[in-house]
Specification:
By secondary structure, the protein is mainly alpha-helical. It is built from 14 helices and four strands. The radius of gyration is 29 Å and the shape is globular.
């Protein structure tokens, strides 16, 4: 005898009708109180407010004042700080130097990283070891990387000058000559960020479908044509991403290398040849205690990065190809 009441049995159709109701109930689940979400977000919001939002607003306010960090007096001058920046020959030289520096670091760094990543993606013996050694420099802090390069290129006891002196009888003054010092900072910055670029390019190259490159070879494409006409367009989204991250890194992450290697010098023209925008901001704000001038430079750099982002996403992605 059956113990189940046939009247309580559910037909298959009724059970299927109830299933979507349960799914929709789960999909539309909400917090029971309005305060709980804000309570969960409170720690992050407090940290952002104290260390990000408030300093940013304070910087915007100080950019409109002529202030001194030591004296403490503030005088409202409106946009006079920005007018002084744009009319200053020294600051214009710093802007030109920064533009040349960023262009060299980004272009040479991406090309070098792409070539090394392409070689490291080949199935050769010891590939894992080579990849680890290529990525290793990125693990170093800028201060340590700068110290290493300072010891290597020391004019008197550096390893590079020791080899050059024994081989060719020359010992260049790397940190005293403006052109050599500028090239040294560019090379150190490229070397420091090389591992970061190689990691992303390796991932992009390994995701290129083998069928596409094989089809190009069958059609008679040379290795050079295969890479630039087939592989490079497929990894253009990664290049587009690395282009922006390298520009921002060259603008903001080169401070440690410059401070350790050259401290903004040697002097060339109105200022030091390796004095870039961020280092000039540091000198005005923390050496000369010109708080208002430093704040206006920070706002100018913020506007500069905003323009770079707008131009990249407005015009740069026209040459980016998504999908095979």
């Amino acid at each position: 005898m059956s113990l189940v009441n046939p009247r309580k049995k559910l037909s298959p159709s009724s059970s299927h009708r109830n299933a979507p109701d349960k799914v929709s109930a789960r999909a539309h689940a909400v917090f029971r109180g309005n305060g709980l979400p804000w309570l969960l977000l409170a720690p992050s919001l407090i940290i952002l407010a104290v260390f990000s939002f408030f300093p940013a607003l304070q910087t915007l306010r100080l950019s409109l004042f002529r202030a001194n960090l030591v004296v403490g007096n503030e005088q409202f001058v409106g946009l006079a700080n920005f007018v002084d920046l744009l009319s200053s020959p020294k600051y214009r030289q710093v802007m030109v130097q920064t533009l040349i520096f960023v262009t060299l670091v980004v272009v040479l760094g991406l090309f070098l990283a792409l070539g090394l990543a392409f070689l490291a993606s080949k199935p050769i013996a010891g590939a894992k070891f080579y990849r680890l050694m290529l990525i290793y420099p990125y693990a170093l802090s800028p201060a340590i990387a700068g110290t290493l390069w300072l010891f290597l290129f020391n004019p008197e006891v550096g390893a590079v000058n020791s080899v050059l002196g024994a081989t060719f009888g020359i010992k260049p003054r790397w940190l005293d000559d403006p052109l050599l010092a500028f090239g040294l900072v560019v090379a150190a910055t490229i070397w420091k960020g090389l591992g970061y670029n190689i990691v992303f390019y390796l991932a992009a190259l390994q995701n290129v479908p083998a069928e596409v490159t094989e089809a190009a070879e069958i059609d008679g494409a040379t290795p050079w044509q295969n890479f630039w006409r087939v592989v490079f367009p497929l990894i253009s989204p990664m290049t587009f991403f690395l282009l922006f991250t390298n520009i921002v890194s060259a603008l903001f992450d080169s401070f440690g290398l410059v401070d350790i290697l050259t401290r903004g010098g040697p002097v060339y023209g109105q200022t030091g040849i390796t004095t870039f925008l961020l280092y000039q901001l540091y000198e005005d704000g923390f050496r000369n205690f010109k708080t208002g001038a430093a704040a206006s430079q920070a706002v100018a750099m913020l506007l500069l990065v905003g323009c770079i982002v707008f131009l990249q996403f407005r015009y740069g992605n026209r040459r980016v190809h998504y999908g095979a």
